Amino acid sequence: MSPTKLVLASTSPFRRALLERLGLAFTTADPAIDETPRPDEPAQALVLRLAEAKARAVAQHQPEALIIGSDQVASIDGQILGKPGGHEAAVAQLSLCAGRTVTFQTGLCLLDAASGRAQTLVEPFRVQMRALSHAQIAGYVARERPFFSAGSFKSEGLGIALFERLEGEDPNALIGLPLIRLVTLLRSHGIDPLTQGSSA
Question: So what EC number does this one have (predicted)?
């Protein structure tokens, strides 16, 4: 049996770096889909829909591949926090989150393009934010410029200083790709990183 081609339906350098940890050969592809939430769409439904939509968009050009799609949103009290896009919006978002719990929902889809069968799930992760002063928030935003990160912070960088406590089963989910659950899905397709990973 020829090796299964693995494709990550993402242009995110963070997701790529996470998947590289498994030591499996893979390529990446830009799914180029509309990620606009539907009216009143809950966070879990949104990330499930988009994770699968990304995988299926890439499947049109990769008909024999096993495709990984993922999407993430942050929310507070049910309100979805988008990517801030700029300094003022990031400061406002972090001011809203300071001293409160932010929930990240990460949708994951593993799509067998040949059969059209998709396995999907949502991995939640909660972040208890520290009580932060305006000066701390402004200083963080100026230094890290988290303008394209949900919740206005990068947990893999200085953003860790914003947190009081993390709660979840897979810390990788906070960065954008729940590797623990992904390994389980890959094994169901006969791909085991512990026995098939490259040494390169």
Answer: 3.6.1.-
Are the CB atoms for 78 and 45 separated by under 8 Å? no
- Any catalytic annotation for residue 77? no
- Tokens representing 13 are 């350098």
Q: For the segment 43-74, what is each residue's pLDDT rounded down to a tens digit?
A: 999 999 999 999 999 999 999 999 999 999 99
Distances (CA, A) of 41 to 36, 38, 80, 123: 10, 5, 10, 17
How many residues in the chain? 200
C-alpha separations of 58 from 5, 81, 151, 182 in Å: 13, 26, 27, 18
Domains plus CATH for the chain? 6-196 (3.90.950.10)
Tens-place pLDDT, residues 165-190: 999 999 999 888 999 999 999 999 99
